[in-house]
What we know:
By secondary structure, this protein is mostly helical. The protein folds into three domains: 2-244, Up-down Bundle (Rhopdopsin 7-helix transmembrane proteins), CATH 1.20.1070; 262-320; 331-385, Arc Repressor Mutant, subunit A (Orthogonal Bundle). It contains 18 helices and no strands. The longest helix has 35 residues, at 132-166.
Amino acid sequence: MEVIFLLGVAQAFFLSFLIVSKKRKSTGDYILGSWMAFIGLHLLNYYFHSTGFLMKHPHLLGIGFCFPMLQGPFMFVYVLVMTNKTSRFKPAYWLHTLPFLLFTIYFLFDFYFLSGPEKVAYYQSQSTNPNPVIKAGGFLNVFLGPAYVIWSLFKLRRHTKNISEQFSYTERINLNWLKYVLAGLGFVWVTVLAVSTLSDFYPLILVEWGDHSIYLALTVAVFFLGFFGLKQKSIYVNMPDSGKMREVVASKIEKKQKEKERYKHSGLKENEAKEHLKLLLQYMQNEKPYLNGKLSLKEVAEYLDVSTNHLSQITNEQLGKNFFDFVNSYRVEEVKSRLSDPESEQFTLLAIAYDSGFNSKSSFNSIFKKFTSLTPSQYMKAKTG
């Protein structure tokens, strides 16, 4: 088992090295690289614990007690940086480290300055006479993580929803890979909660394997992050425009959120909405702006000389669609139209999809099925009989 933990340590430090070795590093890269290094230290500390190294060198005892309190903040701040308008690290983010700092300061005076034998005696006494502060710290170790996972998922979900209101595409801006990261960390914290709960009923069993289960889950999460992270090249491989694109996306989303505050009092009258809708439909039909794979709400609004807030209100209230679905419904119809054209027989289905405004095979397949209830290949078979 200890070998697995050691592999997790190596993997975490290796991922950290890959990130910090990039030529162009964003704030998110620094946070993620630091986070991976911290996970490596966390796993290394437990490796020393499980092999008995800490008991042989008691001056190191207790160093990792507060480490779990930083896992959630690392994750949450990374999500914030990836979804905010700017990639700068805000001073307010340091507030998330307060539990860790307060408990570390307490242990600095109550435990860390003790001699080796005193630390061993203190450590062993906790099973029969637990320190209330340590119990409080243990509580935070268990419940802070799940709270931050939920909070992070909420932030990411709002970001995803706002994207569909502003853009007609999701490639490289939807941060779907972060969902996999959060799922992996959620798995870790579910394990922590399960072990913490079951320990009240089966203490003898969990003394043997409880902590092992938690850190085995953390090790699996590191490999999980490594697998999806390496596939997500914008994290580990230089993509010069990725940071700029993220700031543009976040800026538009922030503007959209401010406009929503005025949504109920937008002043858009029913007759004006219908007139704008008429112009919008004519524009889509005649100019076919949806063929532009990077079409945004702002571009359409500027062409029609209408505010993005009003345009969003029109598509949502008059058509019952967000901007993403509105534009992609035209792209799907464009594909269907071209498939019916004999002159398009010389082109592959994917080539037709790209010419119709789609940016990737995966998005084309999922969007096409969403609007037709058939995959593109199923549609072709049904069409040819």
